[in-house]
Amino acid sequence: MDLLGGGLDSLVGQSFIPSPVPATSAPSPTPAVVSSGLNDLFDLSMRIGMVPGGYVAPKAVWLPAVKAKSLEISGIFTHHQGHIYMEMTFTNKSLQHMTDFAIQFNNNRFGVIPSTPLAIPTPLVPNQSIDGSLLLNTLGPFMKIEPLNNLQVAVKNNTDVFYFSCLIPLNVLFVEDSKMECQVFLAIWKDIPNENELQFQIKGCHLNADTVFSKLQNNNVDTIAKTNVEGQDILYQSLKLTNGIWILAKLCSPARKPQLHVVAKCRAPNVSQYIFQVYNSVLKN
User: Fold this and answer.
1) Which of 26, 62, 67, 189 is deepest in the core (most CB within 10 A)?
2) What is the CATH number that goes with domain 60-168?
3) How many helices (H) and strands (E) does the chain have?
């Protein structure tokens, strides 16, 4: 799917000149050609210290022991230095040793597969818990599935094969190269149909614009520009998923109000609804 093409050429000759943007790679640097005061709007001079570590969802029990002959698996997903990990805890609640562990994923929306075999020190003796970290990549086959971040997993040991599903927090699927030039951002924003726009409120959020910038930047959401209109801070942001889909966002922080207003636009409108979950989780933790 060409997410950014077919329409940018028609914008040439307006107050800015967009550059061609590949569908699956970051835009090439282009000289800014912005008039009508937009140079000031897109002068992002702030340099804010990064918050250490991206957001990690709480650990969840993915496979209860009652459904897996006394094997319990809990876990989380993390993103660190460009790599995605599936961090799991295996607990043996049976009266026998467990050995010969292996794992396999069903085809999914993002082509997520293990990069290495599952390495669990065995035997896993009764009442013992062992932590394991599985490196993942997105080079596997794609398949349409709902919800789009659903991952179906099969785990084998010496007793049987067990199945479970879990949700990959979408922020671990954000890539590092989502920065784009301001005039390209403007062109794409205008070119995406209004019916693809999704608006939502994040209530009970007492963060200033600098903290919002840092939290989102640390989860690979790039801020293209920052401005202030009548006391309201506005951030223009871009992010890209591992399957090449871009999402653009405008985040408004009303003065003296504990809430944020976010407008998201994407060529694949069904993706935008998941952005609320990411923004809400990242900014409230």
Assistant:
1) 62
2) 2.60.40.1150
3) 4, 13
